[in-house]
Amino acid sequence: MQANSILSLAIWVPIFFGGLLLFSSKLCKPKTAEYLSLFAGMVSFFVTLPIVVNFDLTTAQFQFQEFAHWILPYRINYHLGVDGFSVPLILLTSFMTLVVIISNTRKSIPSSKSKGGIQKNIGLYNGAFLIMSGLMIGVFTSLDAILYYIFWEAMLIPMFLIIGIWGGPNRVYATIKFFLYTVLGSLLMLVAFIYLYMQTGSFSLFDFYKIPLTLNTQFLIFMAFFMAFAVKIPMWPVHTWLPDAHVEAPTGGSIILAAIMLKLGGYSFIRFAMPIATDAAIYLKPFIIGLSLVSIVYIALIALVQKDMKKLIAYSSISHMGFVTLGLFLLTPLGVEGGYIQMISHGFISAALFLCVGILYDQSHTRDIDRYGGVINKMPLFTAFAVFFAMANAGLPGTSGFVGEFLVILASAQSNFWIAFLASLTLLVGAAYSLWMIKRVFYGEVTNKLVDNLKDIGLRETVVLGSLACLVIVVGVYPAIISDITNVTADQFIQSMSFSKVIK
Amino acid sequence: MKLIHIFSIAPFAPLVAALLVGFFGKKLPKIFSYGITILGVFIAFLISLYLLYLTSNGYSMNEALYQWMASGSYKFEIGFLIDNLTSLMMVVVTFVSLMVHIYTIGYMKDDPGFSRFFSYISLFTFAMLMLVMSNNFLQLFFGWEGVGVVSYLLIGFWYKKSTAIHANLKAFLVNRVGDIGLVLGIALILFWFGSLDYANVFQRANFLQQEQMMLFGSQSVSVISVICILLFIGAMGKSAQVPLHVWLPDSMEGPTPISALIHAATMVTAGIFMVARMSPIFEFSNTALSFITIIGAVTALSMGLLGVIQNDIKRVIAYSTLSQLGYMTVALGVSAYSVAIFHLMTHAFFKALLFLAAGSVIIAMHHDQDIRNMGGLKKYMPITWITFLIGSLALIGTPFLSGFYSKETIIEAAKLSQNMGSSFAYWALVIGVFFTAFYSARLYFLVFHGQERWRMNKQTDLHHGLNKNQSPHETSFVITLPLVLLAIPSLVIGYFSIDFILYGDFFKQSIFVDLAKHQSLYDLQQHFHGSWAMGLHGFLTLPFILTASGVLLAWLMYIKNIRLAIPPLIIKPVKKMLDANYGFDYFYEQWLAAGLRKLGHFLWKYIDTNIIDSFFVNGTAKLVKVASVLLKSIQSGYIYHYAFTMIIGLFLLITFFVKI
Fold it and tell me: Staple partner for B152: which of A291, B164, B172, B610, CB 3.0–4.6 Å?
């Protein structure tokens, strides 16, 4: 065990800078705040790099553990640590936060009229993202249930503010819906934690893993976790908050929501629900797989008929996240790693797509597909990116979008052919909604004045979209870059799932 | 540097060229765009030739380039399998690609997307080479989808044309239907064979032939058959077999060079190649082979029939391609894999030639593609005329020309095969020969002979076209050179290579035929007494009589202008059916696509919005509100209300708890 504090740094550096930025709107000019947040984003990203550089690939143990007593009477500790499942997500979080901060500056579009709103409170806005980044990394590193719970809940506040302050016209409904949905689930999770505390006398995750429980108890605990995580992912039928939240959220909010927040649900399934209530997870496997397939097929069909670009991508997100839960609950190394890579990949692709929609929206103030047409004539470079990411979204081999879907389909065929068949329908429907949108928005003649006034993207957007595109290709061509980190942990995870925890 | 790294230059040189041109081509002079891509493809071509030389002397290689990822006990690797089949395909692909690259310099010279086009076709060459060089199913799928995506980009190359952007979406989605089959086939292979590596899979196919799996309830089916049929569904998408053929005619919306390269010579034959490559699996499933035979036969005949009624020069050739792909598929189905590959090769040359020659005609006609406006081009465009004639003669199977050897062998193989469906296939192919001859001759006569119809009143108002007083002429050297270079193999390659490719040991390492069960190829070998004898014998066969009568009929109808008296009662419904493409498009667009959209709308509006959102989510919120209104009304603040409530409460308590 190394006695350093790189995990604490990864959590608290962004939160510190975020806090600083919250006051910056009063103290300094927007331009200064912008540079400060850029600097903060970079520093926050760089402090997470040592985690992956020093990570030991050969062990499934938790690494870089930090331990301090916190609330002694209840044996609540400040206990951090990471394994193969946490590291890629931590990097994704800090990287995406940097992406959001870079893209929040609107300087590169000369015609942009969005000087109001976000621009005015740029410090506050970026500060919220930085704080959220730290909190989410906290979730990915906590090994103590209460610590985890605090990060989990605290994270809602910045997101609530981002949508509530900088959101669209229907933002109040969306934020309340978002908040209530997630809190409802989380409270049940808290109940489960408290029950486990009563049984083990501690909030340590390690103790939770060890404790034997009856099948009935496991079932209840699993369902409590399930409510919390299923809402977050989101799984059908508790998904309806997501399209609303996305539509109302500003671009940056959508990016973080899709790229990271949804992943918290998937991650928590692996970290809490499945290892703690092992037998219940196995027992409920058909149920979860069924819901995942509904997500994949049913939601994809809904995405097909959306008229709002953001809603389309939001539904597409739900459909893709269906592969995560499907993969995880197949309970094979292939499925788990497929589901995991799907999470990372979806982080890149959905973020890029939301960014694309944001770029269009900033210029023309509409997300209505019908109001576009022939954008390629005005924005050829931007169109190249949009087509690329739409292809990645449709699971084109060579992009990261393919890896997760492919592995999960392979894994599901080992369980039942028809599961694989239903999952593979996404090949068709996913391509249909992605490329049909591309066709209607980008191809064809310039249809109206709105499109005629568009200007192509500048250097800043090119760099951001380009770096995302590179990552999508790297993961697609060489997914071992992620799976090498997760391999040992995944194997160990599958092994631990094979031991029953039921009291004899 | 290991040998594999040298060989990997073949696919990666075009990739690098594509990236360079894609990123920088637009700002630099044109010579950069075509210079670099042609250099890349030329390097690939040289390496392919060298590999063909090596492999025909018995060399073969199967090696991994790198490990893609590993999970559990599975390893996924990217690597190359180089044997005769691979190297032959590589030569065909790079040669046709090189010709198309050169041709494009002239064909696209005024197009604003000049460098983009070169970038795409180079990228295509890369993906296609990855496909044919692959030694595992994962990379096969990568190449498979890669060529699909470039095809998508190229069909929609002229993105302002609404028909083009409809066609490319359609092509991609129809291919995706096939891909579902391919992916599921791959998934089952991984499950049953424990590996995606060709060598491992082929080695174990033998042991799995008795395995059964449950697919529908408790009914068990042969694993190998299921896998083979699923893989073949993938091939049906890519190689445009009925009923997944609908995208190919529409793909003609793309520029003509890519019709030659992608939609005739290479990409559409990927399905044929794939099945031939998988022959060690397919050989163990007679069910799958029969399925393949029947699909191929239906495609060969029905699509040939459609070629007869087309008036767009490219569409005639497109339907001809569909029909010829059907021939190749039948060859696969009767276990004559090497014959399918042989026909794939000859077809690649003469069909690419036909398309490029058609492109030459199209430029000369100023982008009027309607053959009813052409005629008499012979004297204005001698090179195009001669090469087009060679291509057509090869296509209809004139003895001694390349197409004759391959097509005749396919028909013979179907005749000799004992597998179910092969006799149906035989007759379908033989009748198909008649239609092939008829539509090819019709096309040729209408374009190159007869009156110069563009000088008359236009029948249609398509595109721009020539003026009455203009004359078409040959364009540049870069257009005619590829025509000549493609005409040579179209003429002679069959004659010189049939013995070597089909009856030698050429495909011994790559293609496996279970001779105990599937003897047709062996029997063919017994009948074969050299190319010369086969050519002479070709004049006496039934297909030749049909070919000749097809040409004759076309000559009578379109040169002599003799109208055949077929009663309208027969011709009308047939024509209607043919015009509607047997109703496939209507069904897919009006029923399937529209149905799915309706279903999506229903799920969204009724289940998601009405039930989940309005009833449960907002309903809960409303319930809280209603409850709070009710509870609020109790807390009115008036003493007498509280007193009243208290009395009622007391009364209730006493009733329940005080025992009298």
Answer: B172
Q: Which chain A residues touch B72 with a CB distance below 8 Å?
A: 332-334, 490-491, 494
Task: Please choose, from the candidates A215, A343, A226, A228, the residue with its C-alpha nearest in 3D space to the C-alpha of residue A280.
Answer: A215
Q: B487 vs B170, B307, B394, B483, B577, CA distance in Å?
A: 33, 23, 10, 6, 36
Residues in chain A closer than 8 A to B144 (CB atoms): 397
The Cα A82–Cα A91 span in angstroms is 12
The residue in chain B having the minimum alpha-carbon distance to the alpha carbon of residue A442 is B159
Q: State how far the Cα of A494 lies from the Cα of A232, in Å rounded to an integer.
A: 23
Residue A25 in any domain: the answer is yes
Q: What is the mean pLDDT of residues B614-623?
A: 81
Q: Which helix (H) or strand (E) holds B403?
A: helix B402-416
Paired tokens of A433? 């909604």
Q: Identify residue B516 by its one-letter amino acid code.
A: A
CB contact under 8 A, A302 and B146: no
> Given its phi and psi angles, is residue B217 left (phi above 0), alpha (psi -120 to 50 degrees) or beta?
left
Give Cα B429 distance to the centre of its chain: 20
Q: Averaged in consecutive runs of 10 residues, what is the pLDDT profile of chain A (504 residues)?
A: 73 89 76 83 89 86 86 85 90 91 64 48 84 92 91 89 83 85 87 89 87 87 90 87 88 90 91 88 91 91 91 92 92 91 93 91 86 88 93 91 92 90 91 92 87 84 91 92 89 85 70
Torsions phi, psi for B66 (to 5 deg)? -160, 165
Count of structural domains within chain A: 1
Q: What percent of chain B has pLDDT over 70?
A: 98
Helix axes A30-53, A122-141, angle to 10 degrees: 20
Contact (Cβ atoms closer than 8 angstroms) between residue A184 and residue A231 = yes
Q: What is the mean pLDDT of chain B?
A: 87
Q: Which residue has the higher pLDDT, B569 or A183?
A: A183
What's the start-to-end Cα distance of chain B, in Å?
Answer: 104
Q: What is the ipTM of this complex?
A: 0.90
pLDDT in tens, B450-492: 888 878 765 555 556 677 777 787 778 888 899 999 999 998 8
Written as six digits, the tokens of B300 are 């060969």
Query: Does residue A502 fall inside a structural domain?
Result: no
**Which element (helix H / strand E) includes A63?**
strand A63-71
Distance CA B258, CA B472 (A): 23
Element (H, E) at A70: strand A63-71
Min distance A486 CA to chain B CA atoms (Å) = 9
**Domain boundaries, position A187:** 3-496
- Answer whether residue A409 is part of any domain: yes
Place of tokens 């001759």: B441
Q: Is the pLDDT of residue B130 over 60?
A: yes
Q: Quick one: average pLDDT of B619-641?
A: 84
Count of C-beta atoms within a 10 Å radius of residue B605:
12
Residue A262 lies in a domain: yes
Residue B28 to residue B37: CA distance in whole angstroms: 14
DSSP string, B124-155: HHHHHHHHHHBSBHHHHHHHHHHHHHHHHHHH
Q: How far is B273 from chain A (nearest CA, A)?
A: 20
Give me the residues paired with residue B216 across strands: B219
DSSP 3-state of A445: coil
Joined tokens for residue A138: 């906290």
Nearest to B356 by CA among B490, B241, B465: B490
Q: Is B142 on the interface with A (CB under 8 A)?
A: yes
* A218-A224-A230-A233 Cα dihedral, nearest 10 degrees: -100
Q: What is the pTM assigned to this prediction?
A: 0.91
Contact by Cβ (8 Å): B314, B358: yes
Measured between alpha carbons, how far is A395 from B110 in angstroms, rounded to an integer?
Answer: 35
Residue A297 · residue A422 · CB < 8 Å: yes
- Test mutation, A235, A382, A403, A424, chain B, max B CBs within 10 A: A424
